[in-house]
Amino acid sequence: MPRIVYIEPEGEHVEVDVEEGYSVMEGAIMNGVEGIEAECGGACSCATCHCYVNDEWWDKLPEMDVIEDSMLEAATERRENSRLTCQIPVTQELDGLVLKVAPSY
User: Angle at CA 85, nearest 5°, toward 82 and 86?
Assistant: First the structure.
């Protein structure tokens, strides 16, 4: 089972095993990761699961689609490495994925 490393807004590292087929957002919600609110339930319509993906993982993620990109335009503190965790499916290739939960203000 792939292990995902979430760095919460206050810096706490939370490592969890997430079953393939779930999204990175669902893994965070199921394991109580602070800062991932997922108000829309994963419908890519709220940006409350915004994160920053560590550079070494960027090329292993699926490409961002137009809907995710436009939703991130409204996100607080968007960066080059911003993604919505609801749009990242967990696969074995992502075992060890490290991401930082974006702050919510």
Answer: 130
CA dihedral 58, 52, 64, 59 (to 10 degrees): 0
Which two three-digit tokens encode residue 55?
């550079």
Is residue 105 over pLDDT 70?
Answer: no
For residues 28 and 17, give the distance between their C-alpha atoms in angstroms, rounded to a whole number: 10
Residues of the chain with pLDDT > 90, as a percent, come to: 94
Token pair belonging to 57:
């993982």
Residue-wise pLDDT for 37-85, tens only, equals 999 999 999 999 999 999 999 999 999 999 999 999 988 899 999 999 9
Cβ-proximal residues to 11 (8 Å cutoff; 6+ apart), any chain: none
Q: Is 76 left (phi over 0), alpha (psi -120 to 50) or beta?
A: beta
Whole-Å CA distances, 25 to 41, 57, 89: 9, 16, 9
